[in-house]
Amino acid sequence: DYKRKELLNRAIQGQVIEAVEDALDSGDVEHLLTLVTNQPADQVFQRNKFPPHTLIRMIPQLVPYVQQQRSIADWVQECIMGVQTDSLNQQMLGTYKEVLENALKDVAQDRTPRGTFLTQLIQNAIVATMKFSAEG
């Protein structure tokens, strides 16, 4: 619990990427959700340059909780929009496409406007990924 408090403090101090990566490394989804729900996604993503591999790891962890909270849906949206496909090698592109396809299965069941929006966003991202890997 002490470690969690420390991570939360780091996130509050603006070391969001480090705090998120620690939560991902330790597989602490609950803590990841705490970090996410305490920080408005658009502000965090504008201030921090998340590495693509971190974003790719975050998507599967967050997607199952999309229906519960709007802030989590916002984070998933920012994650997907934040991945620069042109900075991924072929292997990472493959992983990313897989992550998106799995996310699509989860999100497609969310019949809210938010779910519909995310579904379209993910579908577009998959198309873009396929286009990009075809070119590469």
Q: How would you describe this structure to a colleague?
A:
There is one protein chain. The model has no long low-confidence stretch (mean pLDDT 89). The protein has helices at residues 2-12, 16-26, 29-38, 41-47, 52-62, 70-82, 90-107, 113-135. Helix 2 (16-26) crosses helix 5 and helix 6 runs parallel beside helix 8 (113-135). It has 8 helices and no strands. The termini are far apart. With 136 residues, the protein is mainly α.
Mean pLDDT rating: 89
- Largest sheet, strands/sense/barrel: none
SSE order, one letter for each helix or strand: HHHHHHHH
**Unreliably modeled segments:** none
The number of helices is 8
Overall geometry comes to globular
Q: What is this entry, summarized?
A:
With 136 residues, the chain is an all-alpha fold.
